[in-house]
Design brief:
The complex is a heterodimer of chains A (220) and B (318). Chain A is an all-alpha fold. In chain A, 81% of the residues lie in helices and 0% in strands. Chain B is globular. In chain B, 47% of the residues are buried. Classes of the chains: A mainly alpha (220), B mainly alpha (318).
């Protein structure tokens, strides 16, 4: 039973890293949103499994939040936003898919190397969840850096937060209040970013954030 | 004398792969035809093609070197040896001590090397295009294949196929995300290596898109028969390899009686039929991709292999 519990936790956490890579690989906005919804689904399954093996019913609430907000509400809101902005085109990346993938691999290797060193002696499931969670966070950051489209940067930010939730559930005894406040701050951030997107669009007629560089005086 | 039955079983496998390889290709072609609502060629057509080619006269280009004439036999021989090493109906055959996953990759790699050289030998432009594309595909497919081998070796603790198959069949293997990734990556590599549809169209003779066919354009007669036979064998090899690594049920253990061998052979033929059906459905459902998209396709396989190896390291070091 213990072995199987570990294997399933490993499967789900590894699946989350894999879905992060699939997001990096996508070059269409709608496909990116669908995969982001899958990311949230895998996260909800992973958190649900942790709730089951840790006997922590409050984690089911976290799983529910992930499923409803990140799996349904935010992707649908982003869908509508893209329709309203009229930008359902291919995503402009700063560097190509190949180098991004290689950088992502490097980040996964880095987070595994770091986390397994730091957390020596802890519970195996927690160690592994922390390693994968750091990988998901770093991949989210990588996605924000390598994309020029503001919508895909938002998706990168949200997937980063999924990594934080994975880390929080892996470590036992995370209070529910913290979880809920994190979830709501993310929602607020999402709303603020959404308003921002429309403002950027109004002013510069694009959501390509490179247009902002000129106005900050970084580029002539 | 325990050597005799072992030797017999090994020879049986060598004969069996040779006998069934064209049948698998014929089955896939027939099924693809049926799926497209054509009648499709008869299942035995590849045998007839091979016999016809063997009887025909060889036409050689004037400037063809010895390499051009020797390459088909060498390609056939290396592919046959590789196919004989993969456990098909039984594990622990006589050659299984050398049935190492890396050895099989090396054998297939040398066959490809010879084919690419032969494609360039006569000096026609199509042969050169085919060779350069083949090598471009190989430069991504082979690292991906090696990473799959590493993942499997990390899980099973060996690269020897008999040991790996025995381990995969036991309940010890558990539920592992790495193996799933490795399986998907292996299927992608197998599609690319066998020049199947998203990467290359095996039925095409349109010069701009072909890879494998462009290399063998100059061959005729028994040389062409050897090369075609080698490509049938390669398809059989990959289907058997996937079956033996990821669905190893029904393999007869070492030293089993003829009844177990017969059951293993029946299971193997069932797996081949299932693999051929899946391949035909997959090929019918999707379109061929542009040549310059192939590196992305294989890059994904490479990435899956790398990620599988990394995740394997995590769960091993805990």
């Amino acid at each position: 039973m213990d072995r199987l519990a570990f294997d399933i936790a490993h499967l789900l956490a590894g699946g989350l890293v894999l879905v992060s890579f699939m997001m990096l690989y996508q070059d269409r906005l709608y496909a990116l949103l669908n995969i982001f919804a899958v990311h949230a689904l895998v996260l909800a399954a992973s958190v649900g499994w942790q709730a089951h093996i840790q006997d922590a019913p409050h984690l089911y609430v976290t799983a529910g939040i992930a499923l409803v907000f990140k799996g349904l509400v935010i992707p649908m809101a982003l869908h509508r936003m893209i329709q309203r902005l009229g930008i359902h085109r291919e995503i402009e990346t700063v560097i190509g898919v190949g180098p991004t993938m290689l950088a992502g691999m490097g980040l996964v290797a880095l987070s595994v190397a770091v986390m397994l060193q730091v957390t020596e002696g802890a519970d195996p499931i927690a160690r592994e969840d922390l390693a994968f969670a750091l990988a998901v966070v770093l991949l989210g950051l990588l996605m924000m850096v390598t994309r020029r489209n503001a919508v895909s940067q938002v998706v990168g930010f949200m997937s980063l937060e999924n990594g934080l939730v994975l880390a929080a559930t892996g470590a036992r005894g995370m209070p529910l209040v913290v979880e809920i406040s994190v979830a709501f701050s993310i929602l607020i951030a999402f709303i603020v970013i959404g308003i921002f997107l429309f403002r950027i669009r109004e002013r510069f007629d694009t959501v390509d954030v490179q247009a902002l560089d000129r106005h900050r005086g970084e580029r002539q | 004398m325990a050597l005799m039955p072992d030797l017999l079983a090994q020879f049986l496998q060598m004969a069996l792969v040779l006998a069934l390889a064209p049948l698998l290709t014929g089955f896939v072609r027939k099924l693809k035809g049926r799926l497209l609502r054509r009648r499709g060629p008869p299942v035995l057509q590849p045998y007839r093609d091979l016999l016809r080619l063997l009887r025909k006269e060889v036409v050689l280009a004037e400037n063809a070197s010895w390499l051009f004439r020797a390459a088909p036999y060498l390609i056939f021989a290396t592919t046959w040896v590789a196919a004989a090493l993969v456990p098909t109906f039984a594990t622990g055959l006589l050659y299984s001590w050398s049935a190492d996953l890396i050895a099989i990759i090396a054998l297939l790699g040398s066959a490809r090397f010879l084919l690419a050289l032969a494609g360039m030998d006569v000096g026609t432009s199509f042969g050169g295009i085919g060779s350069s594309r083949e090598v471009m595909i190989a430069s991504l497919a082979e690292p991906a294949m090696l990473l799959i081998a590493f993942t499997v070796a990390l899980v099973a603790g060996s690269t020897q196929l008999s040991t790996v198959a025995a381990f995969m069949g036991s309940p010890e293997v558990g539920l592992r995300v790495s193996l799933g990734m490795a399986a998907i990556a292996l299927v992608m590599v197998a599609i690319a290596e066998n020049a199947r549809i998203p990467v290359d169209n095996p039925a095409t003779h349109l010069e701009l898109t072909m890879v494998h066919e462009a290399m063998v354009l100059e061959y005729s007669g028994r040389h062409l028969a050897m090369i075609e036979f080698a490509s049938h064998l390669k398809l059989l090899l990959y289907v058997s390899l996937i079956a033996c690594l990821f669905v190893p049920w029904g393999l007869a253990p070492h030293g089993a009686g003829p009844a177990a061998f017969a059951a293993g052979a029946a299971a193997w033929i069932g797996k081949l039929a299932a693999g051929g059906t899946l391949l035909a459905v997959f090929e019918t459902a999707i379109a061929k991709m542009r040549v310059f998209r192939v590196p992305e396709f294989l890059g994904a396989a490479l990435m899956l292999g790398l990620l599988a190896t990394l995740l394997m390291f995590v769960s091993r070091s805990l």
